Amino acid sequence: MATALPPLPGDYEPTRATLHAYARAVGALPRAHGTAHPLWWHASLKVRPEGLVTDPIPLPDGGALAAGMDLRRHHAVLTASTGEQRFFRLDEGMTATDLGDALAEAAAGYGLTGPLDRSRFEDDAPRAYSPDAATAYFEAFTAAAGILERHRVTLGRAVGPVQVWPHGFDLAFEWFGTKMERHGNGTLPAQINLGFYPGGEPYFYSSPWPFDPAVTGIGLPIGARWHTEGWQGAMLPYTGVQGDPDAAARITEFARVVHQAASPGLEAP
Computed from CA positions of residues 45, 239, 225, 4, in that sequence, does the dihedral angle turn out positive or negative? Predict the structure, then answer.
């Protein structure tokens, strides 16, 4: 399927940083009150036609509440299963602390009481917000999510959902190998994360864990390169594929090559 990625405006970064800060405030609600998932999927946001939305958070009365950012109408919103909604403007310069506190106060009215981890979102810096830049960001995330989803379903059942992680503000899904690896005080399945990071110079990435440096000997498609300083994996700059009608095919081929190179080493003997 031919999918062209929309260009991102030159003044995009200040609004992206604002949305990142706001996403951390929105994500604090399911992190505190959602049904805990062992891989923290309950704390993520999902790309929906109107914006970025949490999974439903169960309420004490048996209903549910979701939080999100509507990036077409430029407000944060709480939506109850009764149909009731509360709105908070994003384009009026509120701080991330202001938004987090406003969402927490409103959620308490539905019975979600108890402290949030304020360190996840507390930030009193003034915030720039361009509606045009926010819309451009959302269009890029929507296009990227569609490409990732179409590839994700080809990988079988050992995959997670496409989701936005508030702490890094990247869009990604996980493919899980059968090998188990020590992590902290427990173990996690070996995995490959495939995603899109919109900050600074945006890029698509594929990050195997644990990372075997030997895979860097594998040639990557044109425009892609291995990345081993800081995070480890491969990257394909957004600017190299934006506007290309074959962008989806190029990103999918990038993902396929990295997966083919790394996945055998992430399977149990």
Answer: positive
Closest by alpha carbon to 134, among 142, 145, 126? 142
Reported as half-sphere exposure (CB side, CA atoms, 13 A), residue 165 has a value of 17
Check: CB of residue 1 under 8 Å from CB of residue 150. yes
For residue 55, what are its two tokens? Answer: 């999974």
Q: Which of 187, 193, 177, 170 is nearest to 267 (CA)?
A: 177
Q: Judge residue 136's burial from the number of C-beta atoms within 10 Å of its C-beta, 0-12 exposed, 13-18 middle, 19 or more buried.
A: buried
How many CB atoms sit inside 10 A of residue 84's CB? Answer: 12
Strand partners, 34: none
In this structure, the number of other CB atoms found within 10 A of the CB of residue 62 comes to 7
Per DSSP, what are the bridge partners of residue 173? 194
**Angle made by CA atoms 139, 142, 144, in degrees to the nearest 5:** 110
Query: pTM for this structure?
Result: 0.94
| 87-119 pLDDT per residue, tens | 999 999 899 999 999 999 999 999 999 888 999
Q: Which residues contact 257 (CB under 8 A, 6 or more apart)?
A: 218, 219, 220, 221, 224
Q: Taking every pair of C-alpha atoms in the chain, what is the biggest distance, in angstroms?
A: 56
Q: How many CB atoms lie within 10 A of CB 243?
A: 10
DSSP label of 150: H
